[in-house]
Amino acid sequence: MKEKVYKVYNDQVQAELYSAYLYLAMSFDMESKNYKGMANWLEKQYNEEREHAFKLIKFMQECGEKPVLQQIDMPAADFGTPAELFAKVLEHEKHVTALINNMYEVALEEKDYAAQIHLQWFISEQVEEEANASEILDKLQMVGDSVQGILMVDAQLGDRK
Ligand code: FEO
Known about the structure:
The chain is mainly alpha-helical. It contains five helices and no strands. The relative contact order is 0.16. The chain starts with a helix and ends with a helix. The protein has helices spanning 3-32, 36-62, 82-109, 113-143, 147-157. Helix 1 runs antiparallel to helix 3, helix 2 (36-62) runs parallel beside helix 5 (147-157) and helix 4 packs antiparallel against helix 5. The longest helix is centred in the last third of the chain and has 31 residues, at 113-143. The protein binds MU-OXO-diiron (FEO). MU-OXO-diiron (FEO) binds next to helix 1, helix 2 and helix 3.
């Protein structure tokens, strides 16, 4: 791996682990507010983010590199209402998409063909990640302050396996 490619991969491991940590904090917040379905969805998302980090780690190791863990920031504890929280999820996923796109640009510049192919999975995954967050946010904005509506969305998110 060239130095620049190594750096973006290593930094992205930290970014994915931070995403996991953020969604875990969000899950705790929703659980404490009795939105158990949303807490479930966010906990599943926490697991997914750890898988993303491991996909990067495994690829680095297959390339003969050693990932080095970095400091992970402390997330907030209170994310407001469900709609406010999912607006933050969407915003965060957009930020992650920008990071992945930047990684791809570095892989292009460095002519790292293996990394380019590896990153294609992440590029597609980010389309899905943004679509999922956006759909939930849309639903929450549709129901507005209706407790019944929010609980209906909560029940749907409780189904995520
Ligand atoms: Fe790892 Fe939600 O992107």
